[in-house]
Design goal:
alpha+beta, 2 domains, four-stranded mixed beta sheet, 5 helices, 17% helix
């Protein structure tokens, strides 16, 4: 006769609980795979950033907002991803300033934020690179600046006017591009100063680390153009790049010709300039700088990357990491001033800026009919360069 096991009260309930408990790791893993988690830390105060807004932005849909959250008591946040496999941007807003990081579903992020102030000490300009070439009866200029915020404790400089630039009075501003330490490019407006032709200001946060601006403009051109430089910050190095068929002249002894070993462009440099009035110069003649692609191929591997950079897309490396390259000849001559000239790679750097102008125009048309994402700077996002 077959025996029967006596029924124990509650055994069925325990079995169900055990099954549910065993399923928790699998459910958690599946949830985490479709979420982006992370934490925000206030590096100005050395503690977690509590109560900050966190925005999840889908990059393949023109900076389209997908969801929002807030940081918890330990600065932690979790964002559910609706489209795993797509590229996203996670934006943390702290004291009116955005701090962005690229992400995919399943990533766990650590985002640094900083307190904000209208004026921050230890902000300086590393380098200005001005690239000029003719286009019919116009002179097209791409003028790039790199600023460094080395405040301690680290604080972001923000407010109505964080940087100003002076261009020739008859210049027509085409576009202004900006990127902070996260190397996320945005289009920003340039605000003309009333009663001061050629004087523009921008409002873009100067976060701790490096911030880069590219001002792209055109000048009516009848064979010569005069530039009177004026600097908002002390500048370690100014580099002027023009085609070899054009002529550079200046009454200032500050400029010297940089030997680049190239015959398709020339570079003039001036070092250790003070804030205020800078050395003026004139360009004349006609000529077009070589195409970006040709220069990138010819310059690849010619100069060592002296400043380590985190991994970035190819276009990021071509544009931003070139600031870490130092020309060996100038390094020998100006080692005491920590010269930052780019030498032959100057063309690659600002050539990419010209490329981004075209991309920016296309982006403006594409994004006009799409959802606007909240951003502290009031800038128009281009996404990662």
């Amino acid at each position: 006769m077959m025996g029967t096991r006596p029924y124990r009260k509650g055994s069925g309930v325990r079995a169900i609980i055990l099954v549910l408990l065993s399923a928790i790791p699998f459910w958690t893993a599946a949830r985490d795979a479709n979420d982006i988690t992370g934490s925000a830390r206030n590096e100005s105060r050395g503690r977690a950033a509590v109560g900050d807004s966190v925005i999840l932005i889908r990059l393949d849909r023109g900076m389209q907002e997908e969801s929002q959250a807030r940081t918890g008591q330990r600065g932690a946040f979790r964002l559910h991803v609706r489209h795993p496999g797509k590229a996203y941007l996670v934006r943390v807003l702290h004291e009116g300033v955005s701090y962005d990081q690229r992400a995919y579903a399943g990533d766990d992020l650590s985002i640094q934020v900083f307190d904000a102030a209208s004026r921050v000490p230890r902000v300086s300009a590393s380098i200005e690179i001005l690239r000029a070439g003719t286009n019919g009866n116009l002179l097209h200029v791409s003028d790039m600046y790199e600023l460094k915020n080395e405040s301690s404790p680290p604080v972001t400089q923000t407010g109505g006017q964080t940087f100003e630039v002076y261009v020739p009075a008859n210049a027509k501003m085409d576009s202004v591009l900006a990127a902070g330490p996260a190397k996320i490019g945005v289009l920003i407006p340039a605000n003309p100063v009333p009663g001061e032709p050629g004087h523009y200001t921008v409002s873009f946060p100067l976060r701790p680390g490096e911030t880069k601006f590219a001002f792209n403009y055109d000048l009516p051109y009848k064979g010569q153009a005069v530039f009177e430089t004026r600097l908002a910050y002390p500048l370690k190095q100014l580099a002027i790049m023009i085609p070899p068929s054009m002529k550079f002249s200046s009454r200032s002894p500050a400029f010297r010709l940089l030997t680049t070993g190239r015959s398709d462009y020339q570079v003039q440099t001036a070092n250790q300039l003070k804030a205020g009035e800078g050395p003026g110069f004139e360009v004349s003649g006609a000529g077009v700088l070589p195409a970006l692609g040709d220069q990138a191929k010819s310059q690849a591997g010619t100069l060592p990357l002296t400043i380590p950079r985190p991994p970035a897309p190819d276009s990021d490396r071509a544009l931003w990491s070139s600031f870490g390259r130092v020309d060996p000849q100038l390094q020998q001559t100006y080692s005491h001033s920590q010269s930052l000239v780019l030498g032959g790679l100057t063309a690659v750097l600002l050539g990419v800026c010209a490329l981004l102008v075209w991309r920016a125009r296309r982006t403006r048309r594409t994004y006009a009919a799409r959802t606007t994402v909240p951003r502290a700077e009031g800038a128009q996002g281009l996404g990662p360069f």
